[in-house]
Amino acid sequence: MEVCLTTLLTIQCVLGIFLSLSGCGFVNSLGINYGQVGNNLPPPDKVLVLLESLRVTKTRIYDTNPDILTAFANSGVELIVTVENDMLGTLMDQQQALQWVNSRIKPYIPATKITGIAVGNEVFTGDDMTLVNNLVPAMVSIQRALTQLGLQQYIQVSTPSSLAVLANSYPPSEGSFKPEITTIMTQLLQFLSATRSPFWINAYPYFAYKDGPDKISLDYALFNPNSGMDDPHTNLHYDNMLYAQVDAVIFAMARLGYGGIEVRVSETGWPSKGDSNEVGATPQNAAIYNRNLLKRQLSGEGTPLRPKMRLEIYLFALFNEDMKPGPTSERNYGLYQPDGSMAYNVGLSTLSTSTTPSTSKTPSTSASTSASTSTSSSSPFISITSTATKIERLGHHQRLVCWMFVFLLAMTM
Questions:
Q1: What is the pTM of this model?
Q2: Where is this region: Disordered (predicted)?
């Protein structure tokens, strides 16, 4: 009886391993930005259904919309909420911050899984030094309010910055912050280090490619096969621009004495449409960028500087938002149209029909202005993992479990 019990417990463990190998899990480090600057977007409950169908368990919103916080209750989807930039001056005051957390956050916890508060968005990008000076005091006040209410262990406080905070990003080991923000950036990093919160960066290889298509390889920007670049100071090899940008931020923090802070990508994406001067903004390139990024996320990899630390990334964005100002590209970063149809198939849904993608035979190392669409990857209408590949992997795992099952039974005879 003892042998049989031991065998059954062992078989149960093996079956658990099988289930984990069969690809039933979520991509734990992937999130999607859920913007709402549109007059034709679906209601939050429909958005939740969409996210669940995509098996996405993390999202970020740009306010504290009570309809969203209510709709997402008991869903298990992790939410990062945002303090709007124009609120920072008010929330510097401790009592105002406490009232804000009491009214905007506490009523929805724990049913709604709020895991982060983004204090402002790209505060350092503009020329408003009053806003910049208000940032860290507002973060401190919100953190104290969370602590006072016993919520600090569940919610991280940070602020997303654009790559405009860097004075230099190439090569990554030369990454440094702009001198004029060094004092406030040091205060921010002190706060993040003390609270063990991540540094959030909005990083878009698209912008770099658009501004210099004759200097930057499109394949390097899109995660396609390419020769990449070697950092001359570290000898680290980079085969894509996003990871180089992230590592440049890490080196910049290290220069200020804070090299141990985690960096997470709060926004990245590629537009599917743009104005005539927005080179590379096509549905093909958008699909390739996001699909290749998802492949990296599925592998759980980190950057060359931190290869063992899974890089957390939030795609931008879930929907095309028709009321966003600026160039055409600003309204065309979405994976979906407001009516729920795909802007292009990036392969997020495991339910979609798919075929095995082809790979490039000759990686490109440069791109010209006319090469606005990558040709070294397959059609954009292909999911991450083909059905055939999934069946093949599942069959292999089943054979492995059957062999182990027979072996374990033999042990009891």
A1: 0.81
A2: 352-380
